[in-house]
């Protein structure tokens, strides 16, 4: 038997020599004999018992006749002579040997090629995870040459690990940003009623500490405290329902009363900011199908933004106009101010979470408004003229029984 026991470029091994993957040419002559003498597990069965003993026998029967440079590199052998004429079992870890002998058996049965992953045993100890391919060129056991190629899985594994890491980082940051959004929303929505509660309580104390305490005025302030406390609790309950994906309850509601309630809540803010309020509420509107707390939140946010824009922008005319009208199918609500209007450069980002041009702004108010109105099957429209003001408007569906009337 002539054996080409080197990894030099040879006539038949030229291609193999330059392959970027490890390739071993093996002699399977003795292995075919072992397989031919295997006994079937049961009489009449085509299955053969490949016990550990048989695996070892086959692994020892297949000798390495040729190794290309990539194979030597992966096996960490400097000199190919160290592995030539040695059994394949000497470079395969237990799992790889098992797959190899099963593959060998399949080649014996006429399959052309088998692929599997496993570990190489590298020189000096240790293992290296690789992807194996086992094949024979001539599908005939009269030919003794079979080929085993292997390429490192390290890069693929580390790429997958990086991808997994990135994905979990992304998932974490998405969770954190969702958590941040929720926290910011609660802080934003509860801040205003809490401010009113503190201011009203302080004013109430002053009325009571007068020489002649004003019980009437204190009663009004206590009512305001109770209303704002209830509103903060409602906001939190709605947020909790939103977070748990519960569909919010939508009942017939009178939009004009919701607006009037919002005005009551914002009265002190308007006075502080010297904002004049103009209400143009259309009488005889049909009831809308809405979640009252959420729509109250939208109106409070839009009206408060308008008041802030006018006072922060030092507008000399500070008029906030809230208008309702009966559109073709929806009840329309407009919140219009005479402030500085929206800077065209920021218009696209206005409804993004955490976008704010205010020094102490959280940038969550308009994002909340948009998601509430979209959940009601509608959209918030914005019209703005620089230096002349901004108008936010949205429609709300009416109760079905009133839709045609
Ligand atoms: P925040 O009020 O915390 O800044 P919002 O989401 O409510 O967050 O508003 C985002 C930004 O939209 C504001 O910082 C402001 O620049 C702009 N904006 C909102 N309403 C108006 C308005 N009526 N006039 C001018 N700018 C407005």
List the helices and strands and how they pair.
Layout (H helix, E strand, L loop, with lengths): L13 H5 L3 E6 L1 H8 L15 H10 L1 E5 L1 H7 L18 H15 L4 E9 L5 E9 L9 E8 L1 H55 L6 H29 L7 E3 L1 H18 L3 E6 L6 E3 L1 H21 L6 E8 L3 E8 L27 H11 L4 E6 L3 E9 L2 H4 L2
Parallel strand pairs: 7-9
Antiparallel strand pairs: 1-2, 1-5, 3-4, 4-5, 6-8, 9-10, 10-12, 11-12
Helix pairs in contact: 2-3, 3-5, 6-7, 8-9, 9-10
The protein binds adenosine-5'-diphosphate.
Describe this structure in words.
With 405 residues, this protein is of the alpha+beta class. The protein folds into two domains: 3-152, PAS domain (Beta-Lactamase), CATH 3.30.450.20; 160-404, Histidine kinase-like ATPase, C-terminal domain (Heat Shock Protein 90, 2-Layer Sandwich). The chain has eleven helices and twelve strands. The strands form three sheets. The protein has a five-stranded antiparallel beta sheet. Strands 7-9-10-12-11 form a five-stranded mixed beta sheet. Strands 6-8 form a two-stranded antiparallel sheet. Strand 3 (113-121) and strand 4 (127-135) form a beta hairpin. The N and C termini lie far apart (101 Å). Mean pLDDT is 83; it is low at 1-12. The structure holds adenosine-5'-diphosphate (ADP). Adenosine-5'-diphosphate (ADP) binds next to helix 9 and helix 10.
Number of domains as seen in the coordinates: 2
Query: What shape does the CA trace take?
Result: rod-shaped
Strand order of the largest sheet: 2-1-5-4-3
Helix content: 40-55%
What is the quaternary state of this protein?
single chain
Radius of gyration: 40 Å
What structural class is derived from the secondary structure elements? Answer: alpha+beta
| Span between termini | 101 Å
Are any ligands bound, and if so which? adenosine-5'-diphosphate
The CATH topology of the largest domain? Heat Shock Protein 90
| Average pLDDT level | 83
Low-confidence stretches: 1-12
Q: Number of helix segments?
A: 11
**Which H/E pattern describes the elements?**
HEHHEHHEEEHHEHEEHEEHEEH
Name the beta content range. Answer: 15-25%
CATH class bucket of the largest domain: Alpha Beta
* Fourth-tier CATH superfamily name of the largest domain: Histidine kinase-like ATPase, C-terminal domain
Catalytic activity: ATP + protein L-histidine = ADP + protein N-phospho-L-histidine
EC number: 2.7.13.3
Organism: Rhizobium miluonense
InterPro entries: HATPase_C_sf (IPR036890), HATPase_dom (IPR003594), His_kinase_dom (IPR005467), HisK_dim/P_dom (IPR003661), HisK_dim/P_sf (IPR036097), Sig_transdc_His_kin-like_C (IPR004358)
């Amino acid at each position: 038997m002539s054996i080409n026991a080197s990894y030099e470029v040879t006539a038949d091994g030229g291609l193999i020599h330059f392959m970027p993957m490890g390739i071993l040419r093996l002699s399977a002559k003795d292995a075919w004999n072992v397989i031919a003498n295997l006994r079937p597990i049961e009489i009449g069965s085509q299955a053969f018992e490949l016990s550990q003993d048989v695996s070892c026998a086959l692994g020892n029967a297949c000798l390495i006749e040729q190794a290309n440079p990539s194979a030597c590199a992966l096996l960490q052998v400097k000199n190919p002579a160290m592995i030539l004429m040695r059994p394949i079992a000497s470079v395969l870890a237990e799992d790889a040997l098992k797959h190899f002998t099963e593959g060998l058996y399949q080649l014996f049965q006429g399959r052309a090629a088998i692929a599997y992953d496993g570990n190489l045993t590298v020189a000096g100890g240790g293992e290296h995870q690789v992807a194996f391919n086992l094949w024979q060129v001539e599908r005939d056991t009269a030919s003794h040459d079979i080929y085993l190629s292997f390429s490192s899985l390290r890069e693929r594994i580390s790429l997958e690990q990086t991808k997994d890491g990135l994905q979990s980082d992304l998932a974490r940051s998405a969770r954190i940003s969702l958590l941040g959004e929720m926290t910011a929303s609660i802080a934003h929505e509860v801040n205003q009623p809490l401010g009113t509660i503190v201011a009203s309580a302080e004013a109430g104390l002053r009325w009571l500490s007068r020489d002649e305490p004003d019980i009437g005025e204190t009663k009004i302030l206590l009512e305001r405290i109770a209303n704002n406390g209830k509103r903060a609790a409602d906001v939190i309950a709605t947020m909790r329902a939103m977070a748990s994906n519960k569909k919010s309850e939508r009942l017939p509601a009178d939009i004009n009363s919701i607006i009037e309630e919002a005005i009551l809540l914002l009265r002190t803010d308007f006075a502080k900011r010297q904002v004049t309020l103009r209400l143009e509420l259309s009488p005889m509107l049909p009831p809308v199908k809405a979640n009252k707390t959420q729509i109250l939140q939208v109106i409070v946010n839009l009206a408060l933004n308008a008041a802030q824009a006018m006072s922060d922008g030092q507008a000399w005319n500070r008029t906030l106009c809230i208008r309702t009208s009966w559109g073709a199918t929806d009840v329309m609500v407009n919140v219009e101010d005479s402030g500085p209007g929206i800077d065209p450069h920021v218009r696209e980002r206005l409804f993004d979470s955490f976008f704010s041009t205010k020094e102490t702004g959280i940038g969550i108010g308009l994002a909340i408004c948009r998601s509430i109105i979209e959940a009601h099957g509608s959209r918030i429209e914005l019209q703005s003229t620089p230096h002349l003001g901004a108008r936010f408007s949205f429609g709300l569906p009416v109760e079905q029984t009133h839709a045609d009337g």
